[in-house]
């Protein structure tokens, strides 16, 4: 990171990344305590992507994400308490507890999941963007997905449709080098995902996803392009997940040294160091941030703990819309 | 609605087209998308002329990308539009099934009621043109299995005309089956026919001796059979299921409670079919009212063969219905 | 086969792994392909260690491309190999359903008997780990509807061990369902257990008062229920369907002819399900032998909710089976 | 066409193209007489592709095709009588009448359909090629598909898998500018299909598909590449169909002038002219060829007419293998 950065903005992004990190560490802990169940996919190491990209989005823009979406939801401003409650399965959760960790939704924040069929949300994102175009709205749609998802046919169809129909869609590929245990070189014959843009005539670029400032800058540039041309853009963020794929993963497919090597690029440390170096932050401010984060996470846990279970009589709700939904 | 006597004659194809036109005129949010719906005029000429009338933004030709454009329809629905997505035939819908089942049908639930998906997906189903094993199947059963979907089957001209309009008023995803073999069929509908209700099954012919429960092309075949049977003094009631999910069981149960016998007829393969569901619901809820076991007449369990003589015997025909009913009643 | 007394204790997971290992050792043409079957060790650790033993040509990690690699399995089968394709769970299989239904199941027929497709496709099915609405479903019914496929359900450890080996001897495509919720379950099998036959259903417990007809995780739940019922003096017979297509109807019909009552149990959604097929076949062929209507206990028709208390009540549990059977018998 | 060409070889290819043309014209006629039913997709105008590509294939190589496959089947040497009988639905047909026009099969000729789910045979082709690799056989697999099919997710997955696994597969895209009534520009954001190869690191090239010599040369070069490297190759043949998509098509989507313009490039006329110019052929030889073709087509029709209907009791055969098949 060579940039300088506005102090408050820098602190704001640092806070968000730290919140995501701490929130997820807590979630992992709660998982081992069996407070949280199902699949839990942590974003630890990738925080710069969510936080960086989110800087380019306005409140009216739409977001679609994967099952590894806590970071996106938090960076989008979905309430941490409601996210935690969701992971507990409580009805105060952001999806009323129906979805769990993989299905965070907040329609008010225009956060449309939390989708767990890999690549399955890409066509949906094309449609959400198409609607904005038809409605002549300035809204942009942002869709996060992994490099593994880019091998699915849905990626191809969605890239082609988005470009063919010229819809305002930002494709954000989070290339963390692994799809579960399958390394990039075993899932793509051409590992530079950004080059796939050229097969559709779509503008694309790759960015260092461990550097929140680089991600932010690239995302803003991409969003501007999209807003001015109406055409989609493929942004590939090269990153790494520090933790296992999910809580069921023995990590047989990569060695510890590789992980340690990547940890040297920890996006949070990097931003902290930058802010320290440029004098925007000191050790005291960092511990203050840490304790603010801790308080926020504790509050989220408290909210989740205090939440309630949906009554069993409600089991078949939300299969079809209820009168007030229509 | 129009005076009963004031009827017009119309093909099944034209009925669908009129509904599309009405829907596009009535609501700016409605658009039609699918392979060849525009410039080609629709694979089965259903949407011919609509591109000229509504332009390419409302009549969108899509590439061959079933998963892609069905998913795009879902996305557009989430975001406030009212897309009508045409999947050319149910055979190709398998390519979009993930979108329909894992997205359209589940988003409302996964989001705890926040995200509803008012998409209408139309597809042609069935055989009848010697299109062989990759173009002739009747897979209504797949979709009828899925909570979260509403599944309609247009077995009459009035429903071909009106179901689409009703579907567009639903807040949730609706799949409508239309039938390749019926497109050229002429039928009479009230001149002012429009929207129909889509909660209930319908009695297409009243009778007292046996209930024929069916849907799709089974309806006209069953009515034909009932006419034949009437000549033999057998008075068959014909129930058109119309809504394959959620099933209007009270209609067919009531019919069976009256006739005490039932034959379920469908063109789809027999095993794990809609007819099985009907039979088992009668078993569960009207067992003690039955004078004879419920029987099924279904498609033969073979991928559709090309030659006409084999295609014809792959699905029940009116004559088969007549014979089967004679057998059931003889048994008494 | 081994001495009955000489049994070993084994998890369901390990039983599958041993079968895979046997198959890979026995026939050079056999290879395993699927997402994360190799370096990761299998999403559910079923194939852990096999990559080290057999190398990457025989244990092939595939990209996320369900349609692509299932289709590739079909192609390799046509061309003389014996691929075992793992689709991580049935939920993702919709992405490959076109390949399974329109290609694997139809090529033999479309080619007039020339091109047979000896591919084995394994998938995990069912709920039990709070994986919510896109990871928990039981869609055996889709595949059981398709002529041309052979569909197996491994409801016991012996079948988890032996069905794969039998499937690899078939000239036609076989889909095997394994169950996520059973992977850690310990069971006893004969020490030398190997291939099993795959034509017939099996009576897992003899009884005379009622037939419980089920498959998959329904088997152990039904056995548990039967033990409970025995304490109440009710003697239930448990039929494990095993082969979901083509159904071995003689087995369950014979059972019903003996007990005169039946309850069909499955975790899948109720409407248009395998249980419906069973019930309607009993209707058609054993109606006059029934002392009570056949009932079904099925999954509640809702996309799977995440929280445990809702997941638990979404599918029938042993206690529900007990209660239901008490009710059926009371009714007499 | 600027090449010179060996006289016998030229005549041979001319004969094949003329046979395909005449065979299909006859089929169209028989369709209007309702002798042939179902969907009938003619290849008229595209003959140079099938005939040119087939020159690069050996008898042991595998072929997979679409529903527009009469040309491929004939060029491969599947018996015209058995093809015609298939279109009649007679049990003497190459698929015993079960398949019809869209499902021609001849396992002996390693002709694996006749597939009518657009793009659905691409993954299968990858697997057929994969088997050859595993069996260490020198066999190549050739898969024909339209430019419309290239928009399907199956294309993307198959391209990636083929390249990733390095299987000996020749992808032949027949770009006839239309997918039913959808012009290339409405189905691909980037209309140069050959450029899609680069998204997978796969070698590719485009060739004038109206010029049988050019197609032949390109196919031979591609096949050599595949045989020497073991890697797949994408060959795009730019061509045009002179007739409607199928017998149900009113051709509203293109104007007659465009069709007439393309007809000037008729591949058969072009080769005839070349052979005439270089003196390898004279008018008499052409009429001799014509009458040989006519005889062959008549013989095929005669065979089909004389064929028999499969007995209705056999309806459920071929759902599962019969003992002799296994
Ligand atoms: C269609 C589908 N196939 C398989 C899975 C199982 N699965 C879940 S995540 C995953 C890996 C996805 O990798 P990538 O897209 O790179 O995202 P990452 O997890 O690395 O963020 C797999 C195989 C799934 N959920 N959906
Ligand atoms: C999956 C699927 N979707 C739609 C169709 C209907 N259909 C048949 S051919 C065709 C056009 C294919 O165009 P292309 O791939 O360019 O091949 P061409 O017919 O031009 O040779 C369509 C849409 C189909 N058979 N399969
Ligand atoms: Mg990844
Ligand atoms: Mg084309």
UniProtKB/TrEMBL annotation, chains A, D:
Keyword set includes Oxidoreductase: yes
Pfam families membership: E1_dh
Dehydrogenase E1 component domain sequence ranges: 15-306
Assigned keywords, A-Z: Oxidoreductase, Pyruvate, Thiamine pyrophosphate
Cofactor: thiamine diphosphate
Assembly and binders: Heterodimer of an alpha and a beta chain.
Protein name: Pyruvate dehydrogenase E1 component subunit alpha
Species of the source: Flavihumibacter stibioxidans
Gene it is expressed from: pdhA
Automatic annotation (TrEMBL), chains B, C:
SUPFAM superfamilies linked: Thiamin diphosphate-binding fold (THDP-binding) (SSF52518), TK C-terminal domain-like (SSF52922)
Domain Transketolase-like pyrimidine-binding: 10-185
Cofactor(s) in the UniProt record: thiamine diphosphate
Pfam families linked to this entry: Transket_pyr, Transketolase_C
Keyword Transport set for record: no
Keywords: Oxidoreductase, Pyruvate, Thiamine pyrophosphate
PANTHER family, per the entry: PYRUVATE DEHYDROGENASE E1 COMPONENT BETA SUBUNIT, PYRUVATE DEHYDROGENASE E1 COMPONENT SUBUNIT BETA
Protein known as: Pyruvate dehydrogenase
């Amino acid at each position: 990171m060579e940039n300088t950065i506005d102090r408050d903005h820098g602190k704001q992004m640092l806070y968000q990344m730290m919140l995501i990190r701490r929130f997820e560490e807590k979630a992992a802990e709660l998982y081992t305590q069996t407070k949280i169940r199902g699949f839990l996919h942590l974003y630890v190491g990738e925080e710069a992507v969510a936080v960086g990209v989110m800087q380019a989005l306005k409140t009216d823009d739409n977001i679609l994400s994967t099952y590894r979406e806590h970071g996106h939801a938090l960076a989008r401003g979905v309430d941490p308490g409601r996210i935690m409650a969701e992971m507990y399965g409580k009805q105060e959760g952001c999806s009323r507890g129906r979805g769990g960790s993989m299905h965070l939704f907040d329609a008010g924040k225009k956060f449309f999941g939390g989708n767990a069929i890999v690549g399955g949300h890409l066509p949906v994102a094309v449609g959400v963007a198409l609607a904005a175009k038809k409605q002549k709205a300035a809204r942009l749609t942002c869709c996060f997905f992994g490099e593994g998802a880019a091998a699915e046919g849905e990626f191809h169809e969605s890239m082609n449709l988005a470009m063919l129909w010229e819809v305002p869609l930002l494709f954000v590929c989070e290339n963390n080098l692994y799809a579960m245990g399958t390394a990039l070189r075993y899932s793509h014959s051409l590992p530079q995902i950004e080059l796939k843009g050229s097969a559709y005539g779509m503008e694309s670029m790759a960015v260092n996803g461990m550097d929140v400032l680089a991600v932010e800058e690239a995302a803003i540039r991409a969003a501007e392009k999209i807003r001015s041309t109406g055409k989609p853009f493929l942004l590939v963020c090269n990153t790494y997940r520090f933790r296992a794929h999910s809580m069921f993963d023995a990590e047989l497919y990569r060695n510890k040294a590789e992980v340690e090597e990547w940890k040297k690029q920890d996006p949070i440390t990097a931003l902290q160091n930058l802010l320290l170096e440029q004098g925007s932050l000191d050790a005291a401010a960092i511990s203050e941030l840490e304790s603010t984060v801790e308080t926020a996470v504790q509050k989220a846990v408290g909210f989740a703990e205090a939440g309630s279970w949906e009554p069993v009589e409600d089991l078949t709700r939300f299969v079809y819309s209820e009168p007030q939904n229509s | 609605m129009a005076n009963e006597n004031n009827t017009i004659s119309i093909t099944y194809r034209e009925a669908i087209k009129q509904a599309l036109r009405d829907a596009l005129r009535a609501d700016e949010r409605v658009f039609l998308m699918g392979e060849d719906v525009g410039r080609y005029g629709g694979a089965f000429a259903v949407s011919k002329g609509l591109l000229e009338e509504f332009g390419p933004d409302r009549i969108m030709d899509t590439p061959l990308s079933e998963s892609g454009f069905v998913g795009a329809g879902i996305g557009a629905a989430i975001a406030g539009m009212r897309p009508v997505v045409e999947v050319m035939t149910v055979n190709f819908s398998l390519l979009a099934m993930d979108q329909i089942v894992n997205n359209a049908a589940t988003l409302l639930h996964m989001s705890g009621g926040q995200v509803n998906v008012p998409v209408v997906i139309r597809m042609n189903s069935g055989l009848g043109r010697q299109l062989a094993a990759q173009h002739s199947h009747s897979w209504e059963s797949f979709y009828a299995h899925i909570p979260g979907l509403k599944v309609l089957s247009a077995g009459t001209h009035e429903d071909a005309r009106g179901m689409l309009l009703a579907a567009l008023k639903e807040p949730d995803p609706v799949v409508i089956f239309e039938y390749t073999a019926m497109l050229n069929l002429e039928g009479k509908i009230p001149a002012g026919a429009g929207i129909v209700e889509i909660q209930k099954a319908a009695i297409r012919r009243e009778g007292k001796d046996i209930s024929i429960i069916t849907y799709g092309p089974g309806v006209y075949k069953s009515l034909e059979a009932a006419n034949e049977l009437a000549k033999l003094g057998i008075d068959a009631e014909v129930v058109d299921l119309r809504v394959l999910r959620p099933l209007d069981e009270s209609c067919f149960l009531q019919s069976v409670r009256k006739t005490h016998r039932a034959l379920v007829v469908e063109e789809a393969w027999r095993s794990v079919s809609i007819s099985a569901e009907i039979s088992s619901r009668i078993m569960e809820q009207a067992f003690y009212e039955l004078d004879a076991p419920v029987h099924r007449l279904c498609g033969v369990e073979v991928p559709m063969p090309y030659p006409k003589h084999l295609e014809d015997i792959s699905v029940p025909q009116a004559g088969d219905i007549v014979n089967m009913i004679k057998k059931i009643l003889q048994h008494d």
